[in-house]
Amino acid sequence: MGQIARELGQTESCFVLRPDAPDADFRLRWFTPVVEVDLCAHATIAAYVCLVREGRISVSSEVVAIRHQTRRGTLGVWVRADDDGRPSVLMSVGVAALREAPDGREGIARTVGLSRDALDPALPVAIDDASARVIVPVRRLADLLELRPALDAIREYSGPSRLTRFTLFSRETIDPGALVHVRHFAPANGIPEDPVTGTAHGVLAAYLDWLGELGDRREFAGEQGHALGRPGRVVIHAVREHGRLIDVRVGGTAVVVAELRMFLP
Question: Do domains 2-92 and 98-237 have the same CATH topology?
């Protein structure tokens, strides 16, 4: 699978297998060209769109509940046909446990290639240890879009810190209907920049809720990929129980643009 992912050269490749867990319908594994990762949303959405296309899953306007086995445990997925008849996929990514980054804001800004003043002064730099992610709030959308990431510095920082994912976001957006604009860099994982990162949006939902910035909002949209000329949109659902965030679900749909047959020795 690692060799196939390197050959395909995508940010992540998703592999669908028979499950080992008795409560799962499928088993999913995800590989970058360099490493296996625990969870990936956009490749999962693509996988389920393909499973529908291949007739492995039948969908209608009614939601079909599915469970898939991952290295993070068995997680829920919900698939239905949208108003245009396309498969719409929603997947659980859990609620990230966050802490404020111990490094100074100036050091983090310098690592990613920004000035300290470019960071949003109202929001902290935070860390999600489970996904080895740094969350960096940027004040202005223009600074985020114009950023040329310091990939060597990010890779060097990732070594001793073991923090391999850098999710940068701004509350200024291109689409007024979106809540956040995101850019995501993980060069240590073989991903210089990811065009769309569903798991990053899921962590951002937990981040905004952690800071009280999400309010009672149960659904919002994020945008990403414009800096690469590959714009995408992610829908995020905040699932609450007695006002407390108990799950985050991210979703969207996908379009098949290529199909290939691979012969293995």
Answer: yes
In degrees to the nearest 10, what's the CA dihedral of 95, 100, 102, 106? 120
The pLDDT value given to residue 103: 76
Contact in structure between 3 and 261 (CB atoms under 8 Å): no
Return the domain boundaries, the chain: 2-92, 98-237
> Which DSSP category does 48 fall into?
H
10 Å Cβ neighbour count for 125? 19
Sign (positive or negative) of CA dihedral 57, 61, 66, 71: positive
Domain 98-237 adopts which CATH fold?
Diaminopimelate Epimerase; Chain A, domain 1 (3.10.310)
Q: Has this prediction a pTM greater than 0.85?
A: yes
Closest CA to 32 of 257, 192, 244: 192
Mean pLDDT score across all residues of the chain: 94
110 in Cβ contact with 153 (< 8 Å)? yes
Question: pLDDT (tens digit, 9 = 90+) per residue, 115-170?
Answer: 999 999 999 999 999 999 999 999 999 999 999 999 999 999 998 889 999 999 99
| pLDDT computed for residue 84 by the predictor | 87
Asked whether the predicted pLDDT for residue 105 surpasses 90, the reply is no
Torsion of CA 166, 251, 19, 60, to 10 degrees: -170
Q: Which CATH superfamily is domain 2-92 in?
A: Diaminopimelate Epimerase; Chain A, domain 1 (3.10.310.10)
CA dihedral 113, 30, 98, 252 (to 10 degrees): 90
